[in-house]
Model the fold of this input.
Amino acid sequence: MQQRARLEEAMRAIERAARPQAGRSVPVGVPGLEALLPEGRLAAGVLVELLGDQPGSGLWSVALALAAGAGHEGRGLLLVDVQRQFYPPAAVVWGLDLQRMLVVRPPTVRAGLSALAEGLRCPALGLAVGWFEQISRTDSRRLQLAAESGGGVGVLLRPRAAQRERSFAAVRLRVVALPSQGTVRRLAVEALHWRAGLSGRRLTVEIHDETYPVRASASVAPAAGEACPASRTG
Amino acid sequence: MHLPAWPLQRVRRAQLAGRVEPSVPGPTVIVRRRRQVEVLWCSRRARQRGLRQGMTLAEARAVVPEAAVYEENPEADRTTLLELARWAEQFTPLVGLEEGLAPSSLLLDVTGCAACFGGESQLVAAVQAGFTRQGWHVQVALADTVGAAWALAHFGRPLPYHCQPGESGFALLPLPVVGLRLPAPVLARLHQVGVTSIGQLAGMPPAALVSRFGPEVCRRLDQALGRLAEPLTIHRSLPPIEVRQELEHPTSRCEEVLVVMQSLLEATAVALRRRCRGARRLDCALQLQEGGVVTLALELLRPGQQADRWLEMLRCKLEGLQLASTVCGCAVRVACEEPLPEMQEDLYAAGMLARSWEWAALAESLSHRLGREQVSVPRLVADPQPERAYQLVPVTTAPPPGGEPVDWTVLRHRPLGLWPQPRPLTVLALTPPGTPLVVRTGGVDYRVRHAWGPERIETGWWRGLDVRRDYYVVEITTGVRWWIFRRLDDGRWFWHGCFD
Done:
């Protein structure tokens, strides 16, 4: 165990040296979601993958909740809307500043990926998000390097079938809509991250439609064979 | 020359030109945000319907729900007024704006210009007719001093007012004291003691005026009566910056054209630095050997002087261009220039400004690479029809501050995903209240677990293609929520969006 802990610390030190920006934490817009993130925080300059079945699984809700936290210190939000379905009036209730939002509706998916990469390289970016049905390993790696250089957070919305693909994302979360309780929308968020032993951890995110706080509720379910962590409630 | 209710006139002109919605003018209000949103200006139709300055927006909407609401935009007001000043240079080269943060008057020094128009009366008539022909409502007055002309344009009757030389002092006497452009506290003190006209002030000893009301009253009175000179800040439009170069050997090679363009862009940047101004839009023209000109526009989010950035933008545009023949000449013209933004000294503000510049550079680069219409900033519109409740404004156009004030309580019940066109839906079963119970789309049946609504959305019949819909939020058994509506005209159902 001690040897494993030393090896993990050595890996983290190597990664910190390779990615100086990773030392900076980005505020997470969903209180409690840190439990599903490596080292319990959202590091700057990373890729996050949210997987779910479109439409209605809650991918955009989780993405915009992350964006609300990443837009600190006047950083901007880049939204690549390949499907041309994003509805800006609904984004206002998430506390996003539309004046600091760029909506890109690219003519092709490739142009959208290119725009996302360019946005991630910009130091003024807080978070960039876009839905992409297919992404090659080369494009995924390119996006990861772009996020590392710019220091923002890249959020890729992918279909659930992409779970089988290898990814360069530091965080992979699967989002599934759950039956609501009254008017409170509920989403199940599960970590698919294959490092740091987070795979399998689950959280329920509640969205109160009347007042719009978003928080993680219920205890974090541990992965199989893992000791049960201290109870966390939102 | 005074333009009454200038912000309202500017907005009405934009409505008629189709630059803002609605394009058909109706009751119009301009609001400003203080502790609450309050009405600043009302159109005549809005006043006839009972709206008044100072009402809150909620009160105004309760009285006139269909009123078009715009947020105040002093920058646009000033910019448009400067365009009018440039146009007014046909009457005199000396045109200025009145002092203050929200000018609504133009000051034209026409000394020595009357002879060109056949006399002062003809000059006044020409100014009045010229602006009226363009659709502006103006009040024109000609007097010996700036102060007298301002007062007569605002309060003199009849209009246009032509004051003969040497008679400005007499013309001012019956006018109200507010015509002297005094601060509001001074005006309040004057009204308290019963001083309402300029004539009353002119009859009081200067020492008494200064001791009771301050030096400003004497200063303005002396300026209006010609006893004290009042300098006029002239707005003079500079000739546009344009540089061109003929190619000794016509070429179709992109690299060679870029070399020529680089020198032209650097010369343009030097000319802008001399003026301490930046370019917002550059027109880069390529003269073709076999006739014709290809013009490539570079639009920038912020005024700048960086030739290397312009060259990169131009390179992106040239790479995808197929020219009909070889290029024999190049030209660069600054189509729009503006003062450079101020630099911040505060560290935090400097950091924010630096980030702002980086963000602007990203927006410009994306816009030039993907296309102007593909990169935009969302702006809310106070329209009940969901598809029209927002605009995607190209980022390189002048961004309006804030957009229209909207009802946030309504936005809570809007989905993050809205289909470009509502998709037909089949409702197989309804509950007794009329909410959907089973729906079918794409050949698959879905059972509705919860339904909220209806929310009725109707637009006015005067809009032409009006809509009348009852919207429902339905949650199917998997927990996914849809936004569907029943069209009231024919009872058909549609799936409009998804709460993703």
Q: What stands out?
A: Chain B touches chain A through 56 residues (CB under 8 Å).
